[in-house]
Write a sequence for this structure.
């Protein structure tokens, strides 16, 4: 069995590119910091301005790490869903999984005032635990529902429409919560819904980092089963695969990857659907043992690149990360739809 991708040079380029965009994401921002001082801070030396040290060490480095984790998690989550549902347009956002996570967060944030507990207090460790659990449960619940329904619906487009309808239903429930919410909680939820990587601090990474790494490792351990699913569930069963167990593990893993990132960074669209296709095009690779690490790497690079764009270096304003990922990911979705249509026309009898 191969242990390396076909095009090793592209992998090397991706690794170098990841290092470059990671450094640029730290160096660039609304506050202009001289390159020499920035390099001194990164290497642990003293800077001429203590404020610059605080900006880089307390805000920019955690944000860059968060971008890597978010891009990797959402991309691998999208790959899991596309393989499991055998649907190239499946991803956490389109199938309503992100909406489920968002609804879980809404239950925590928008109802906090009514029960006398301010769970949105940023300095509270338990508030982050509550938001993370709520998002994970919400995303896993929607993914489980989609999985059950997919057993009875074979049409991919119908399944996607169903995911969108679930998203609309959840959105309606969120609007009801917003109507009865306090202005303070509503403002916090609206800001969260725009998507922001900068709200994650070192204290938050203590939760985020191990959860995402564990989920990514779990996805990698499912590589063999995912390869079997590429040929259909009947083939997987004939090879001795436990479909019920695989389904459960994918639901849990996908729920953690999509839900935790949504909890900390807000809903981020199109990364999960676009990156797996971009990676397959670049490397012509379909073995999940190789594809999962490469999808994670490509997703991290894309998210860092989007974060650089969203910062608008030299400006005080910051574009919501969700807007940037949509501008990049939506054309990929359009391309996939046209490719699917072209394939169907090419195999259709004349």
């Amino acid at each position: 069995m191969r242990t390396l991708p076909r095009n090793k040079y592209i992998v090397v380029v991706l690794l170098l590119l990841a290092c470059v965009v990671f450094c640029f994401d730290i160096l660039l921002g609304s506050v202009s910091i001289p390159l020499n001082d920035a390099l001194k801070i990164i290497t642990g030396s003293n800077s001429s301005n203590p404020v610059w040290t605080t900006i880089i060490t307390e805000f920019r480095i955690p944000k860059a790490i968060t971008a890597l984790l978010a891009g990797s998690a959402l991309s691998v989550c999208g790959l899991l869903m596309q393989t499991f549902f055998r649907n190239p347009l499946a991803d956490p956002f389109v199938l309503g999984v992100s909406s489920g996570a968002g609804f879980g967060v809404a239950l925590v944030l928008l109802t906090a005032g009514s029960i006398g507990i301010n769970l949105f207090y940023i300095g509270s460790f338990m508030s982050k635990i509550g938001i993370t659990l709520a998002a994970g449960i919400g995303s896993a619940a929607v993914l489980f529902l989609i999985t059950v329904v997919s057993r009875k619906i074979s049409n991919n487009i119908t399944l996607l429409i169903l995911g969108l309808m679930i998203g609309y239903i959840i959105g309606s429930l969120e609007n009801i919560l917003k109507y009865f919410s306090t202005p303070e909680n509503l403002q916090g939820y609206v800001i969260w819904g725009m998507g922001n990587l900068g709200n994650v601090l070192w204290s938050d990474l203590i939760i985020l980092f191990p959860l995402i790494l564990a989920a990514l490792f779990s996805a990698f351990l499912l590589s063999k089963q995912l390869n079997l699913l590429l040929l259909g569930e009947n083939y997987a069963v004939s090879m001795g695969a436990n479909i019920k167990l695989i389904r459960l593990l994918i639901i849990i893993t996908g729920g953690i990857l999509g839900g935790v990132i949504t909890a900390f960074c807000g809903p981020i669209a199109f990364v999960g659907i676009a990156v797996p296709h971009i990676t397959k095009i670049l490397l012509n690779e379909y073995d999940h043992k190789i594809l999962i690490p490469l999808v994670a790497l490509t997703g991290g690079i894309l998210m860092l690149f989007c974060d650089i764009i969203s910062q608008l270096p030299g400006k005080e304003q910051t574009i919501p990360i969700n807007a940037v990922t949509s501008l990049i990911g939506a054309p990929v979705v359009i391309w996939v739809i046209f490719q699917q249509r072209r394939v169907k026309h090419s195999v259709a009898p004349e």
Notes: Residues 113 and 182 are 7 Å apart (CA to CA).
